[in-house]
Amino acid sequence: MKFFVDTAVIEEIAELNDLGMVDGVTTNPSLILKSGRDIIEVITEICALVEGPVSAEVVATKADDMIAEGRKLAAIAPNIAVKVPLTWDGLKACKVLSGEGKMVNVTLCFSANQALLAAKAGATFISPFIGRLDDINLDGLQLIADIREIYDNYGYETQILAASIRSANHMSECARIGADVATAPPSVIKAMANHILTDKGLQQFLADWAKTGQSIA
Ligand code: E4P
After folding, report:
1. What is the best residue among 2, 6, 46, 138 to mutate for testing ligand 1's pocket, by most ligand atoms within 8 Å of CB?
2. Residue 13 domain-assigned?
């Protein structure tokens, strides 16, 4: 499973990128706000830092305007994936932009039917939002499984990009179900390293080591 990092903060991306943990980046208008940066400037910097796809989201709501914004964003770098919302206009924009050879990430997906439409419209990525479904007592991971089954039934090449990930458990479950990509905040990717038995075991080893009176350095 590929790891995308869900942030527009350069320092956070760079730290994970140095460890080989970043196969791509996703941003959205809320993440741009959080970064405090100009969208064109920060997306340009991210694209220079990371080799994989960098999602930059349009904010227009009409297809023609989305297409114009998508072309402008795609001109920033060859690794831009234009992010469009899963609305009827977004699907129209997806069809045109993907037809021009641009990567398109269709976002705000909350149902298998929406994912089916995105694949038909030529999306490179479909972004089902797990956490926001869980928030309203629906099953976000079940949606990933449903889309996986549907795409495999027909050989759709659209990649399932599990989004709105809130926990390390979401990451391993997405990998088990067969999501192609999971995008998560840096804190969640780092939390994947944690285990209480690792901490306990290390504490014991260090205590025993201190008793040996030895030094390696
Ligand atoms: C990524 O593409 C999404 O915009 C993001 O994962 C949404 O996450 P949130 O529901 O935590 O805002």
Report:
1. 6
2. yes
Does 202 map to a domain?
no
Q: What is the pTM of this model?
A: 0.97
Nearest-angstrom CA–CA distance, 115 and 109: 7
Closest ligand 1 atom, CA of 185? 6
Handedness of CA 96, 99, 105, 111 (dihedral sign): positive
81 in a domain, yes or no? yes
Atom of ligand 1 nearest to the CA of 31: 4
Tell me, yes or no, if 92 is annotated catalytic.
no
What range defines the domain where residue 177 resides?
2-192
Q: Which residues contact 133 (CB under 8 A, 6 or more apart)?
A: 110, 139, 140, 143, 164
Cα 50 to Cα 63: distance, rounded to the nearest angstrom: 29
Strand-pairing partners, residue 26, are 6, 55
- Out of 2, 83, 95, 102, pick the active-site residue: 83
For residue 129, how far is its CA from the centre of ligand 1 (angstroms)?
Answer: 7
| Rounded mean pLDDT for each run of 10 residues along the chain, 217 residues in total | 98 97 98 98 98 98 98 98 98 98 98 98 98 98 98 98 98 98 98 98 98 96
**118 belongs to a structural domain:** yes
Identify the CATH number of the domain in which residue 30 sits.
Answer: 3.20.20.70
